[in-house]
Amino acid sequence: MSWFILFIAGLLEIFWAIGLKYSDGFTKFWPSVGTVLSLVASFILLGIAMKDLPVGTAYAIWVGIGAVGTAILGIMLFNESADILKIVSLGFICVGIVGLKLAHNA
């Protein structure tokens, strides 16, 4: 269950990171509210997941999910560049996430 909670925490990290863009420096009320709620929920779930998972593994996976998801949505929503180096680098992060999960089970 801790892995599922960690995954949801990572997804919420994506929401608050994208929400920062939509909040326009916290000048737009509802995007700001959504950003803060996502951030708080993400941190709470990360903390819950860390009760059973090693801190280094949980934190790295949480950051990795957030980084990859935010970069992909940045490409899709904000027309950020999608050059081959960026895509390959995101792939390396995904490999790292899987590697950390497998290393935990070993």
Describe the structure.
- The chain is mainly alpha-helical.
- It has one domain.
- It is 83% helix and 0% strand.
- It contains four helices and no strands.
- It has helices at 2-22, 29-49, 55-78, 84-105.
- The longest helix has 24 residues, at 55-78.
- This is Guanidinium exporter.
Question: Quick recap of the structure?
Answer:
Keywords: Cell membrane, Membrane, Transmembrane, Transmembrane helix, Transport. The chain crosses the membrane at residues 29-50, 57-78, 84-103. The protein has four helices and no strands.
What's the arrangement of secondary structure elements?
Elements: H1 2-22, H2 29-49, H3 55-78, H4 84-105
Helix pairs in contact: 1-2, 1-3, 3-4
Protein name: Guanidinium exporter
Main location: membrane
Organism: Colwellia asteriadis
Largest sheet: none
The proportion of strand residues reads: under 5%
Low-confidence stretches are none
Query: In which range does the helix fraction lie?
Result: over 70%
Average residue-wise pLDDT: 97
Structural class, by secondary structure, is mainly alpha
Element-by-element helix/strand order: HHHH
Label the overall shape: flat
Helical run tally = 4
Radius of gyration: 15 Å
Cα distance, first to last residue? 18 Å
* Strand segment tally: 0
- Structural domain tally: 1
Oligomer: single chain
Keywords:
transmembrane helix, about 110 residues, mainly alpha, 4 helices, about 85% helix, flat
